[in-house]
């Protein structure tokens, strides 16, 4: 993973790096590897994640087809 530091702005580069690591799931994997996970717990977690992904995909598909209202946009001040 590579992040460019512009104008000696290390703080901004760190924020970008953290965001990239979060998106890649590095922090979640580090937390999972910090302690042993039983195989049965691992199967249950992976199954729950798969169900969550499937429901999210189905929800987005229904929103695209107009069967569900689109989520409200939150205006964030910058």
Automatic annotation (TrEMBL):
Taken from the UniProt entry, a GO cellular component term is: ribonucleoprotein complex
User: Which keywords belong to this entry?
Assistant: Ribonucleoprotein, Ribosomal protein
Q: Does the keyword Ribosomal protein apply?
A: yes
Q: Which GO terms describe its molecular function?
A: structural constituent of ribosome
Q: Which GO terms describe its biological process?
A: translation
Domain of life of the source: Bacteria
Give the InterPro entries listed for this entry.
Ribosomal_bS21, Ribosomal_bS21_sf
Q: Which Pfam families match?
A: Ribosomal_S21 (PF01165)
Q: Write out the similarity annotation.
A: Belongs to the bacterial ribosomal protein bS21 family.
Provide the protein name.
Small ribosomal subunit protein bS21
Organism the protein comes from: Rhizobium wenxiniae
Q: Which gene encodes it?
A: rpsU
């Amino acid at each position: 993973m590579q992040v460019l530091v512009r104008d000696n702005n290390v703080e901004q580069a760190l924020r970008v790096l953290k965001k990239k690591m979060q998106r890649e799931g590095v922090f979640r994997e580090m937390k999972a590897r910090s302690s042993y996970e039983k195989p049965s717990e691992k199967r249950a977690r992976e199954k729950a994640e798969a169900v969550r992904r499937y429901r999210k995909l189905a929800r987005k598909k229904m929103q695209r087809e107009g069967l569900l209202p689109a989520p409200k946009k939150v205006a964030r001040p910058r």
